[in-house]
Amino acid sequence: MAMVLIMFGIELIDAAFLPAAFVALLAGLLSFLSPCVLPIVPPYLAYMTGIGVNGLKTGERSAVVPALFFVLGLSTVFILMGIAASAFGRALLQYQDLLSRGSGLVVIILGLHFLHVIRIPFLDSEARLDVDAKGGGAFGAYVLGLAFAFGWTPCIGPQLGMILSLAASGAEAQRGVALLAIYALGLGIPFLLSAIFINRAMGLMNRIKPHLKLIERVMGVLLIAVGLALLTGAFTAFAYWLLENFPALATLG
């Protein structure tokens, strides 16, 4: 985390970055574990390598390089979203408090959707984009990553919307880029690990699948907690508390 802070020049005291970064990383991981992403990981890896799922299991061809370019593709889209969210936040800087509170309400509603308290039909759909790129190549995997980031937006929209709200609530462009990059890491690193340890990953995925509903509810609780934090300004308060109790963190900005 310290390396990320140094790379993007984030100041904790201004951006409440540390708690937001933790939420972004956790949201990315939970997005990977969501019911509409986890089941498609083996077929995606098989397509990107140009072989079947059985070929992956027998190690006929490595999926690591295609998976890396896939992650680069989705990261490209998410980082561009982070830049756009930061630009939007700067344009409405005088309304920053109102924007933060409005974002908090929206994120809470998205959390209630995950908890099945209310249902938003649009979020149950997947606007998948078909790509003509052939499987088995780095470029095709990169294009597939771009398509995944756009096409699965309704499915991962609540998590992504939460991180975009956090990005828009700050004035620094670096903050939005860093938060979306961290979200992309949380979503992308499990893809890479699945490609590296494909047999173990498939076994683990099969064990996780019965618990996908629980993971969905955990995401709902996280969304509501973040929404309340945006409403009350708790992220900034927590950042001050961290600096007060751990002064060494001030050197990371």
Question: What's the layout of helices and strands?
Answer:
Layout lengths: L1 H7 L3 H4 L1 H16 L8 H9 L3 H5 L6 H28 L4 H19 L23 H14 L1 H16 L4 H24 L1 H11 L3 H21 L1 H12 L8
Helix pairs in contact: 3-9, 3-10, 3-12, 6-8, 6-9, 6-10, 7-9, 7-12, 9-10, 9-12, 10-11
GO biological process, one term: cytochrome complex assembly
Main location: membrane
Membrane topology: Multi-pass membrane protein
Explain the overall architecture.
It is a multi-pass membrane protein. Belongs to the DsbD family. Keywords: Cytochrome c-type biogenesis, Membrane, Transmembrane, Transmembrane helix. Pfam families: DsbD_TM (PF02683). The chain has 253 residues and is mostly helical. It has one domain (17-58, 65-252). It contains 13 helices and no strands. α3 runs antiparallel to α9 (153-168) and α7 packs antiparallel against α12. Mean pLDDT is 74; it is low at 1-8, 10-15 and 127-134.
Number of domains: 1
- Specify the number of helices: 13
Protein structure class: mainly alpha
Strand content: under 5%
Instruction: List unreliable stretches of 5+ residues.
Output: 1-8, 10-15, 127-134
Give the biggest sheet: none
Mean pLDDT: 74
Secondary structure: helix percent: over 70%
Computed over alpha carbons, the radius of gyration is 19 Å
Q: Order of SSEs, N→C?
A: HHHHHHHHHHHHH
Oligomer: single chain
- First-to-last CA distance: 11 Å
Total beta-strand segments: 0
What shape does the CA trace take? globular
Subcellular location: Membrane
Keywords: Cytochrome c-type biogenesis, Membrane, Transmembrane, Transmembrane helix
Protein name: Cytochrome C biogenesis protein transmembrane domain-containing protein
Membrane topology: Multi-pass membrane protein
